Amino acid sequence: MNDDPLRAFAAVNGGFRWDRVDVLRYKDEGSAPFRDVTRQTLFRRPDMRGELRYFEVAPGGYSTLERHEHVHAVMILRGGGEALVGEQVFAVEAYDLVTVPPLAWHQFRAARTAPLGFLCMVDAERDKSQLPDARDLEQLRTHPPVARFLDPR
Amino acid sequence: MNDDPLRAFAAVNGGFRWDRVDVLRYKDEGSAPFRDVTRQTLFRRPDMRGELRYFEVAPGGYSTLERHEHVHAVMILRGGGEALVGEQVFAVEAYDLVTVPPLAWHQFRAARTAPLGFLCMVDAERDKSQLPDARDLEQLRTHPPVARFLDPR
After folding, report:
1. Right CATH number for A26-150 from 3.40.1390.20, 2.60.120.10, 3.30.450.20, 2.160.10.10?
2. Which chain B residues contact residue A94 at CB under 8 A?
3. Is there a catalytic annotation at residue A121?
4. For residue A3, pLDDT beyond 70
5. CATH of the domain spanning B24-150
């Protein structure tokens, strides 16, 4: 066990796990729609105004479709998949950078055959997420690429 | 050219370069001791209180030995080398996490045969770096692992 506050080693098996970092549920079950996502908080300190988290979506899984005032600054770290940001859908793979601006609807979806692991920097002080209502979803589905993203065959 | 504000793709050649992100000098020449370091600001926005930068130290190079009140939250992304933090020296490799607490002297040194690339999250609002004076260096060299780090053969 490494109890050194200065460092947290990556797991030697390459599993995108760190000693001294807990693997947490992404959200409480039933609080919002999502599938097969884990969350690890890599850096959160009272003397820093940003936080860095690592999320991993298992193959075929997806994060919650949501929006909020605070910005997400994302770097893909592992695997691949697709991102929905606002009305855009695009493929993402390792090291791509994605900015989720204020109040942009967004969701990350892993490929069927690969996980999607990504870093996400946020402000420590931030607002809560909003979920789409039926009207929001209807509006989003007016964009064909978004409709295909939200309802994959 | 990708002028989409939502995304910046990683260079397809795997060179840890991103479109829309400039590769900058680490610091102005002569302002502080360092060798073979580049700097890329991946995320900096007026509506975020954290910043995420990518630094890359070429084989045999090193960052500036310095300290400051603000914290560095580091994830190694590529290659390997050694880190000095406070009075500790340790080997680092991809995905290791390093915390540089307030006023800890710190320096990153790439291996002779590999670069050392790392992400560094900082507060956007932060103090300037301090360089060690002769007395600080003398004090640091009283720790044998630190002396070996500072004066590699």
Report:
1. 2.60.120.10
2. 10
3. no
4. no
5. 2.60.120.10
